[in-house]
Structure formats: C-alpha cells, structure tokens
Write the structure tokens for this entry.
Amino acid sequence: MANNYLEIWSGGSASDHSIIGRPIHSESNQFYSTNNFVFVKFYTTENVTEERFSFNWTSVAIRSKVFTPIPMPQEVKFPEGPMMFPNLELSWKIESSKGSIITLMMTECILQNSEGNFLEIWYGNVLAVNLTSSTENQVFISNTNEVHIYLNTGNEAYKGGLTFSYQEGCDIQLQSNSGQISTPGFNTINPSSGFYVPNIECSWMIISKDIDDEFNLAFSWFNLTDSNDFLKVSYKNTFMTKLTGNGPTNSLQKTSNILNLIFTSSVMDVSSGFNGIFSISCPPLNKSVSSETIIESVGAANALLSTVNISCSPGYTFKQEEYANTKTQLLVCNMGGIWSKNPYPSCIGIPCENPLLIENGTIHNVSSALYRSRVYYSCEPGYFMASSNSYAECDESGKWTNLPICQPQNCPAIINIVPKSFYKQIFGHDSEVGAQKEAVCEPGYGLTGKHVASCLPSGFWTPTEYTCKAEGCFVPYDPKANGTGAYVQESDTFNYTCDSNCTISGTEESNMTLTCINRSLEMPNGDIFTNANKCGGLCHEQVDNCDKCGNNTAKCETISTGKHWCSCKSGSQGTTCEEDVDECNWIQCKNGAPCINEEGYNYCNCSYGKGRYCQLKEETCDSSPCENGGHCYSTPGDYMCRLV
C-alpha cells in the first residue's frame, strides 16, 4: 500500500542525520551511509497487509593506511566489493627508506567523471598527478621517498574502484598492451616544474599479451640534459636508439612484443624528464574492410595515434548504418591498439534501381542489386540478341546501362539451287521469323514438290524439295528429223522436217508445221501429232510386195523404184509395222501421273489434274473453302489456307 514505506537515514544527532533513500517496492535496493550511523524507519497504516521486507547490512573499515615498500610489487585494492562508497575521503601513504624512490603502478582507477570524484598523487609535498577520469596501466615514479595518494569518491556510489601496486626503486616489469611511463618526479600537472633524480638508472620491461604484437612508443614531453642523460630504447633486447636532449617528435615503432627501456641520469644537472605512452599497434584495416574501401593514412598506417581517412571508391558507400550519408570517416589508433571507431567503416556497392525490362526480352538472372552487379536477359522466341552483351550493368549512379537489344530473328537468304526457278514473298517481311516464301518456276516450266519455305524461330527455313520441268509440248525425238527431242512453248510452232526420201508417218508430207496448243502438238488438219507420226515406220524400208506388211499397216504404197513400203498405224513401227511403239519414252505426264503404254496407244493416268498429260489444274479452291480471310493455295490433290 502507498502509506506503508521504509526509509534509510544516515547520521548521528537529530540535527545531523539525513535521509539516504526509500527502497522501491519489489526491487533489490542497496544504500551506503556517510558515516558509522544508519537508521531504518518503517511506517505503516492501521490496515493489516501481507507486505514484508528484509535487509542485510555490513560495515567497512574506512581509514588511512601507511605502507612500507619493498623491491617487489605489493597490491592494494579498494573497496573489496564491486561498489565504490560515496562521500569518502581516503588517503594512503607509501614511505620508503631515505635516499630511495618509489614506483607506483596504477593498474586500474575507476572514477565517475563527476564533481568531487578525483585522485591525487603527491611526491612528498608536491602535487604531481591529478586524475579526474578513469585510467589504467599508468606508471608513476617519485623523486622522493614519500608518496601520498588521496581519493575523494564524490556524493554518489558507483561501480568500480581503485587497484594499484607499489615497490621500492624503479626497475619495473609490466605485462600490458598499453600504458604510461615517466621519469622519476615527472609532474603531469606542470611538466616544466618537475625534475628527476640525479645519478640513477631506471628500467622498464614491458611485454604485450600477444607474441605477434608490435609496440609503439610516443612522448608528450621529453627534456633530458643533453648528452649526459639519455633513454635507451630496445625491442626484445635488440638496441634501436638512444634519446637525449629534447627527444623525438614522432612515435617509435618496431615489430616486437617486448619493449625494453633504460633511463640513466648523471650526477650533473637534471631536467624535467619525459612523459610517454606505449601501446601495441592497431590491426591493419585493409584486412578487415572491402577492397573498394580507400584507406589514406597520415604517418604509419596503424601506429599509435596515427590517423586514417576512410572513403569509398566511386559507386560505393559505407555499408554500416551509423556511417550512412557520409563521404569520409576519420579513425585514430588509440591506446591498446584499438581504433577509435568500431565497426570499421567498410564499403559496398550503392543500391541500384529496379532492373529494367527490355522489349521482346525477359530477365533470367540477377547477380545482385548493387553497383557493378549485372542483370542477364534472354530474348523471346523469334528474336535474337542483336547487341554484343546479354546483360545490363549497374553504374556508379545506381542506374542500369548498356541494356541489350532483342531484334526479330532473321533466317539467312535462301540459296536457290533449282534451275529455272526463283522465290517470291507470300507472307511476312523479308526473312523475319514467320515469313513465307514460295518457289516459282520461270515461264514455260512446271513446278512439282514441296515449294513453300517458312522462317522458323530457330533461324532456319523449313526445307523445300521441288523441281521445275519445261512445260508446253514435247517434240518426240526422231533420228530422221532435225531439231526433235525438244520442247515447244505454248502457242509456238515447230517445223517438223524429215530427211530426204522420208515422209511423216500417216501422211505423204515430208515436212509439217506443228502448233503447241494446250500442251499438245496439233497438225494442220487438227489431229494430234504423236510419236507414231514421226518420220520412220516403213517409209523408206522397202518391201518386194504389199503382202509382207503386217496387221498394223495403214496402207501399202508403191514408190517410184517399183518397190513398196508399209505405212504403219499410230502406235506401231518397223518395216512391216509389227513393232509396238512405247510413246511413254517421249511424253511427260504432269503432276506425278504415270504413263500407261498399251498396244497402239498410250495415256497418262491422272490422279490430280486433267487433260492429255494431266497438265490442267483442278480448281479445288473454286469453292472458297478458307475462312477468316485466309487465302487458298492449290496443292497436288488438295489445297491449303494461309492468312495474309
């Protein structure tokens, strides 16, 4: 209940005591008094409740102490628990034998960075060090045999405390990655006012925690008596340099995890001394950031107190959110080999726009969505990649460049190997996918076979297989007539002339003008000229009398020599007209019709077409069978429809 509460008070008399605090309900609370009196006040109402409390208390002895140092380090830790008590004024005195000096190693000093919380170190009656913030691994050497340490904890308790060790003399061994060193008696408050002890030698052997570390040594103040007093610097017992006078202006760096220092002063005049820091180097940044990260260092790239400017290559930006919208980041290599910023700024490609679509193409793979990433495209069926690249690339502004181009797939030009023919366009454009071309024979030649080629998405034409054969009328070959065995174009004439003393069979003429009409040779009397009419038969094969002429003789005629010859009927030949003539050797049936030879005559057995030689078309498209505007094309025995 709100009226039930507990109060913790500190103090002695009623006028001096003050409230420390009120415990919060259901929480664990801890309070510290300002002296050796604590009052606990419990307030309740008249109501009965089940609320309760319990507490424990402990006392801590707070008093000044005096220590006597020995040559080996001795440790002091305050407080024993995790919390520093408020409102304390503590002091420690370390006193050695006269003529000796004292080394104080401040292993850890946690301060609250608030008013009234500080630590002072006095060499005798001189204030040499004043700490107001936390520190660690600092080494201080007095120039007297007395050191006084004063700690004021401030008005609030805080987590932490003070840990230090002390020893007589100045031969120091320390295992640490970083820290502070100075000459005996160096005054950190006013460096020029301090002075070191004459005729003394101090040594430091500092070892880092990792054998692969390298040490750096830097000085904020360096003033030794020139030539008489010096600091010898060695790394792993390998001499590096000897410093004197006003000392170095830059840091010293060496690949070694052991730092050896020896300071020697003469019996002559002394100076204010030196104050320096040591630390291992920071880890190389190039091993922890991307290759697109630009590292520009001032001085040694990873030495103590060195600075590094980090930026990104064009097209890249910092990937960490805390560095977003910045162009550069400054890093400093701090004590302990720790860079001033963590995580380390590292660069990645800038984000790209959404991938763009291309006409007649599709995206089939995207490597990423950052600078220099690629989007791979493929063309739709019927199109080919006309550009040299099949991908677009994201530039440094985040835009996609060099988009590929898909163009209609063209078939190669048709190579015509059939004599007396050519191709004409019947559908589509030129040689693009879907286009159709039809083979056409030259005038006077007839076409048979598959003669329409279509351009496929694969870029190839469908195969054609056709022939162009001469049309018109065929003049049967007659060895006894000149110019026979050839074709005559429609409506043209042919002068059929037999050799001397020979006539055209079935006539008494030795020459005759034949006319090609509807692919048949007509004689002047209107009869059709056939193989049986050629010069030959028994026209010049004489017989003694007509009785020798066979049954297929048309008539027996007497010639001027007193002999006779048998004039054969159509379809027969020979001296006595007993030989059958196979006219199929000379005539050509059209549209694939076979030639049938019978005794005395022959015919073309038409399965498609009509006429003597099946040469006339059957107009199968006459009924207009095609729908939706399709065009009808006649084919052998059939028809086909195409949209045009």
